[in-house]
Amino acid sequence: MHTKPNIKRIFLILLIGLYFAVAYTLMNYFEITCVFLKIFGIPCPGCGMTRAALALIRMDFYSAVKHNFLVFFMPYVFMYVFFEFKHKIHNKILLGIAIIAIINWIFKLIAFF
Fold first, then answer.
1. CB within 8 Å of 74: residues ≥ 6 apart
2. Can you give the pTM of this predicted structure?
3. 104 with 45: CB under 8 angstroms?
4. In degrees rounded to 5, what are phi and psi of residue 46?
């Protein structure tokens, strides 16, 4: 049985790849670490996430935690998006991650000022 590839999943994978390519270019060639910070003058909720993901790719766990510990929740978020979990427990877990992200952002803002 031959199945058609899920266009949404392919698009998301390409979008994530494009994101990392643009982020890498901005960080290394234009010395911009966060576009949100550059525009609004405050760190975004995900500030440090790209640097944390790149640190994880290098297996540098200490740097990943230092930049943004929320990077460890991202595999679950990607699985939620890619595999379209429908059970209520997954929605509660995602809500918990969102609450942790907001609390983390509040602490980042307090430390920033």
1. 49, 53
2. 0.64
3. yes
4. -105, 15
pLDDT at 82 over 80: no
Contact status, residue 43 vs residue 34, Cβ threshold 8 Å: yes
The answer to whether residues 107 and 47 touch, using CB atoms and an 8 Å cutoff, is no
Residue the block writes with tokens 């995602």 = 94
31, 27, 82, 32: which is closest to 53 by C-alpha? 27
In angstroms, the CA 24 to CA 54 distance is 9
Q: What pLDDT does residue 5 have?
A: 61
Q: Measure CA 108 to chain center.
A: 16
By residue count, the chain amounts to: 113
